[in-house]
């Protein structure tokens, strides 16, 4: 009983501590992506609120991984361990995640409560680089257009030293070259790898938001991702070395998350092929008309089955070898 209570307390701890830490990280992320050289950054209420509603789904996304990692070291009755793990994952994705999406929509509406980075004015009096061109911003940009002096441009060397109007809106080359930051000066000063990782996670969080808005069936299909992530639980006793089990669980979750993120952000050809194969000639019109992603659901379920089969097989072999040696701990 004590271990079960400890498991529940651990679950509550990762929810509370995870939301606190993730909110802090997202505030820094939003601050850096919205920061403009020469301006002060103040984490306003809107930024903290947006960060919180991004952090809750992120923590719930990581629940299967964190619970499986906990079970590697704190495994008690195998049957009740599986049941408690499954119940916690189902509670997180079946109740808490939809509540988080509902709360986010109530607080933020259908759009973002943050200002689009393309609408943030760029301060004057600074040198900024876009691709190979170098500009000096003579004044603060207004109406998504900045007054600049072109200092260097391999494409237009004859215009160097001249004044011009530069488009800095979200559709401009300047904006795209500075992405995910608003200011290219910030991009040159910081490593954008952490921001690319957060961008990959945001692909999944945006897909979750769309799935919830498309109805229960779409949400159930999205929850196939939870099944795929939770399947890594089958690896918690695959080796007598705990570090191997930790690595197996973490790597499996990372691979599944990266694949799902790439499925939403790339793999356009594969998505089109799979959807045409399933929805072609009017087949499954109910799902296609509601934007329900059956192909990804099938892939996630197949991945879950494969992971469970591999984990159970390797665990059985390990158990058999240890029983022969007389040293297996169930």
Number of domains: 2
Rg (CA only): 24 Å
Number of helices: 12
**Which series of helices and strands comes N to C?**
HHHEEEEHHHHHHHHH
Roughly how many Å apart are the termini? 18 Å
Fraction in beta strands: 5-15%
Give the low-pLDDT segments: none
Q: Kindly name the structural category.
A: alpha+beta
Oligomer: single chain
Keywords: Membrane, Transmembrane, Transmembrane helix
Transmembrane segments: 7-27, 47-67, 79-100, 216-236, 243-264, 292-317
Structure explained in plain terms:
Keywords: Membrane, Transmembrane, Transmembrane helix. The chain crosses the membrane at residues 7-27, 47-67, 79-100, 216-236, 243-264, 292-317. It is a single chain. This protein has helices spanning 2-34, 45-73, 78-108, 173-178, 184-189, 193-213, 216-222, 224-230, 242-265, 268-279, 285-289, 294-325, and strands spanning 126-130, 133-137, 145-152, 163-167. It has 330 residues and is of the alpha+beta class. The protein has two domains: 2-115 and 194-325, no CATH class; 121-181, no CATH class. The protein has a four-stranded antiparallel sheet with strand order 1-2-3-4. It is elongated. The chain starts with a helix and ends in a 5-residue tail after the last helix. The mean pLDDT is 82.
């Amino acid at each position: 009983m004590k271990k079960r209570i400890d498991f529940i307390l651990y679950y509550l701890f990762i929810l509370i501590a995870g939301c606190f830490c993730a909110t802090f990280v997202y505030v820094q992320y939003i601050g850096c992506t919205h920061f403009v050289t020469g301006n002060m950054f103040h984490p306003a209420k809107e930024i903290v609120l947006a960060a919180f509603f991004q952090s809750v789904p992120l923590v719930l996304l990581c629940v299967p991984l964190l619970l499986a990692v906990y079970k590697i070291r704190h495994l008690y009755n195998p049957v009740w361990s599986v049941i408690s793990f499954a119940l916690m994952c189902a509670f997180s994705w079946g109740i808490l995640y939809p509540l988080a999406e509902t709360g986010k929509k109530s607080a933020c509406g259908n759009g973002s409560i943050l200002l689009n980075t393309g609408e943030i004015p760029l301060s004057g009096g600074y040198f900024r680089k876009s691709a190979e061109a170098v500009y000096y911003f003579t004044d603060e940009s207004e109406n998504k257009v900045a007054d600049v002096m072109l200092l260097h441009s391999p494409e237009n060397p004859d215009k160097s030293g001249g004044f011009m109007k530069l488009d800095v809106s979200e559709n401009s080359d300047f904006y795209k070259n500075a992405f995910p930051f608003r200011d290219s000066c910030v991009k040159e000063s910081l490593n954008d790898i952490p921001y690319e990782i957060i961008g990959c996670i945001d692909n999944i969080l945006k897909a979750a938001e769309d799935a919830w808005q498309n109805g229960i069936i779409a949400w159930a299909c999205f929850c196939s991702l939870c099944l795929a992530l939770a399947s890594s639980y089958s690896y918690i006793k695959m080796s007598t070395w705990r570090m191997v089990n930790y690595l197996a669980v973490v790597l499996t979750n990372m691979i599944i998350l990266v694949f799902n993120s790439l499925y939403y952000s790339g793999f356009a050809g594969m998505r089109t092929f799979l959807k045409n194969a399933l929805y072609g000639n009017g087949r499954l019109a109910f799902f296609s008309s509601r934007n329900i992603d059956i192909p990804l659901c099938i892939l996630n379920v197949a991945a879950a089955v494969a992971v469970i089969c591999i984990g159970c097989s390797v665990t059985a072999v390990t158990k058999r070898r240890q029983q022969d040696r007389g040293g297996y701990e169930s």
